[in-house]
Amino acid sequence: MSKNYIVGFPRIGEQRELKRVLEEFWAKKCSFDDVLETAHELKARHWEYQRDAGAGFISSNDFSLYDNMLDTSIMLDAIPKRFRHLKNEELYFAMARGNEECVAMEMTKWFNTNYHYIVPELSLEESYALNASKIIDEYREAKALGIQTKINIIGPITYLGLSKRVDRGDVYELWGKIIPLYEELLKVISTLDDEIVVQIDEPIFAKELEMKVLSLIKPTYDRLARVSPNIKIAVITYFEHSNEATKILVHTPIWAIGLDFLHGDENLKSLDIIAMSGKKLIAGVVDGRNIWRCNIEKTTHLLESISNFVSKERILISSSCSLLHVPFTLKYEEKMSGEIKEWLSFALEKLYEISLISKLFFDGEDSLDEREKEALSSNIKANQNRKNSFLIHDKTVQERVNKHTKLQREGDAKERLTLQKEILGYSDLVTTTIGSFPQTPQLRCARSDFKAALISKESYEAELKKYIDECVEFQEECGLEILVHGEPERNDMVEYFGEQLSGYGFSQNGWVQSYGSRCVKPPFIYGDISRPKPMTVEWIAYAQSKTKRIMKGMLTGPVTILNWSFVRDDMPRGEVSKQIAVALSDEIDDLQNAGIKIIQVDEAAFKEGYPLRSEKIKAYEAWATRDFKIAVSSAKKETQIHTHMCYSEFNDIINTIEDMDADVISIETARSGNELLKIFKKVGYTKEVGPGVYDIHSPRIPSVEEIVKQIELLLEVLPKEQLWINPDCGLKTRKWEEVKPSLQNMVEAVRIVRNKLNR
After folding, report:
1. Which of 466, 458, 423 lies closest to 442, judged by CA?
2. Please, what are the domains in the chain?
3. What residues contact 695, with CB distance under 8 A and at least 6 apart?
4. What whole-number distance in Å separates Cα of residue 260 and Cα of residue 264?
């Protein structure tokens, strides 16, 4: 069998086929059978792609209609009580998205990626039971196509560690309930074939674990690896090193250990103990998180270093993690610069890189056929060209960034907020939104037609102004107090800015799954970054001219622009971020000089970029906070700076948030009550906060009563003078028929609460 190992593969489809059929199903335009048929076609195609590329270890059960953590909850019958009256697909999608009766389960980031998972809700009093039907069906589905797969499952320790206890206890107390179900699962799997590899993903091992968690590793894998002799267990970790867990895993009867040698190069320190254990090593040496073409010469040198410890016959060549985190294929990139395209590699291309590296490493260069020799030569040439290209280096940018000395705003927050409240004159519990309004089909069509030169610039801009006019009119009628322009000109909160910054590249079809059917198309940073001209001033100033109310200027912050892009790998991330920050400081100055009094600099991905290991956090926080402060350093005292953060546990970064020194922060809290807000009270946070009062990731419309209750919960934590009232996040992905009544209910809820407070 080939020694090429694929941890996991994208499932949204090379043309986002899964996204489209899911959204048609949710809109009641097709049946669930249509969804299943599309899923079947995609799985078959993806398996065939991997087989044709020479992969020896192809996954089943890495495919999901929404999320693998949600699938695991279904597998364990870990279904919260509020959903138990539902069945089948109605149950599944209600857990993920909510419905008219039930609030969706919480969603948060998968480690330090932009993928989101559905957080399991567990309780000690609940009983759980195995439902292995999806796993069995998918394995048989592949086998019927003549494809032998390994079975991917999320490991029990990771599943527990990423869950929450609704009865407030320690999630690991449920280990005794969960492990027997995993044993039962493996017994079922053992009946499917004479020999099966089961890949158990334990990415939580890449974090620093308490001793009580580390102490569960040996009993877990002693038990699971002994369920059946025909099951080979490969425990896979990624995103960082997992040396502490590896030291324990080598003393269990598992078959293989998978390590990420790109984002966790300290895994090299574990090679000697793996060598002594005699286990297989799945060596993650092709980047599953970035899009740069692998440097095959450098990678084979790394593998040779690894083989100084672990013998070649016990090494499998792998992606560093699932290829879920990169776009599908370069095949459709027809407009991209040929020079830049040569530097890139998406999921499909990475399959062939792994195959070529494997043959070169195991069999030597003489074993390559003419096509493979040509591919190797092309790889060496492309990497050399990239290193020397004039597209990458801009001395003017480098000199300006090096000389930038203003690192923060003038005045402290108390002084600024006093001045701002006097000038802006807003009320307690002031209402606003996070920024974007629905991107309608008409809007997307107009943008597409303009890019294809089917309509003139004048026609396109007239369409945008019409949309802004309607947004302003609705917000005024609704009663919102601080307005936004709706962002009709923006395709994406990062791509839009990237298109106007030098040093950025773009794909036509580089879509990556963020959650469910939600896909993003991250731009990529290949060179030094500068801002040739203002990016947002024209549209924000136009919107402000249409109303006497205050119009927020909307920018994406430097750290989020960085974290939601594929970043060049030839210089430190902090240096790239600083270049973006200096460019944004010019934009903020232009906005305030155009009369914009509130500017929101979103750092939705600030927490997402955090290293998984504490020893690396201080360095990240240092340059991340520095660059936010550089970006807003041009703001005058009277210009109010907002920021927005998504899906963050703030307990461990609250001091960093304070250091960022934004005047107002809005945060996503609707799915977690007021729990996230309590840390702000605990530390005596004195700036202003806009906790989300309803969940925009669900299509359900919150009632006035629900929002009143949510606001009252917030008032238990912070005083009205500190609170802004807004939805959880931007409204881009919602429909107007959901947005309008939701915002009307929010404004009415604020009116009711204000009346109560003024009695």
Report:
1. 466
2. 4-388 (3.20.20.210), 414-758 (3.20.20.210)
3. 98, 103, 104, 670, 671, 702, 728
4. 5
Q: Give residue for tokens 């600030």.
A: 606
* pLDDT tens string 373-420: 999 999 999 999 999 999 999 999 999 999 988 888 988 899 999 999
Dig out the tokens for 106 from the structure: 């919480």
Is the pLDDT at 752 greater than 70, yes or no?
Answer: yes
Q: Give, to the nearest 10 degrees, the angle between helix 370-388 and helix 296-307.
A: 110
Over residues 436-462, mean pLDDT: 91
The residue type found at 23 is E
Indicate the helix (H) or strand (E) that contains 221: helix 211-225
User: In Å, what is the CA distance from 24 to each residue of 27, 31, 387, 465, 684?
Assistant: 5, 9, 45, 29, 47
User: Which amino acid appears at position 705 of this protein?
Assistant: E
Name which of 106, 100, 112 is nearest 697 in CA terms.
106
SS3 433: coil
Where is 267: in which H helix or E strand?
none
* Number of other residues whose CB lies within 10 A of the CB of residue 40: 14
Query: Does residue 693 contact residue 667 with C-beta atoms inside 8 Å?
Result: no
Enter the pTM of the model.
0.90
Concerning whether 697 is annotated as a catalytic residue, the answer is yes
Cβ pair 354, 286 in contact under 8 A = yes
Q: Which residues of 57-86 are buried (b: 16+ CB within 10 A; e: fewer)?
A: bbbbbbbbbbbbbbbbbbbbebbbeebeeb
Q: What is the pLDDT of residues 627-656, one digit of tens each?
A: 999 999 999 999 999 999 875 567 788 889
Query: Distance from CA of residue 491 to its chain's centroid?
Result: 18
Do 478 and 744 meet the contact criterion of CB atoms below 8 Å apart?
Answer: yes
Longest dimension (CA), the chain: 87
Mark 263-295 as b/e (b = at least 16 C-beta within 10 Å).
Answer: bbeebbebbebbbebebbbbbbbbbbbbbbbbb
Q: Which of 241, 485, 642, 697 is catalytic?
A: 697
Which tokens in the block code for residue 700? Answer: 């359900």
Cβ 703 vs Cβ 746: under 8 Å: no
